[in-house]
Amino acid sequence: AFDDEDVIHVDGEVNPVRDLETIGEELRLKDEEQLLQNIEKL
């Protein structure tokens, strides 16, 4: 990564393990949301 004081991290600091877990959870939740919308259309 890089250090740039103009770029602010949502959690205050970069933590690759935590950040990867956060991304995975956000993707899972979006997939679940899309799945539920598709089920409602059936």
UniProtKB/TrEMBL annotation:
Gene3D superfamilies: TGS-like domain. InterPro entries: P-loop_NTPase (IPR027417), TGS-like_dom_sf (IPR023192). GO terms for molecular function: ATP hydrolysis activity. Signal peptide: none annotated. GO terms for cellular component: cytoplasm. SUPFAM superfamilies: P-loop containing nucleoside triphosphate hydrolases. It comes from the Eukaryota. This is GTP binding protein. It comes from Chiothion asychis.
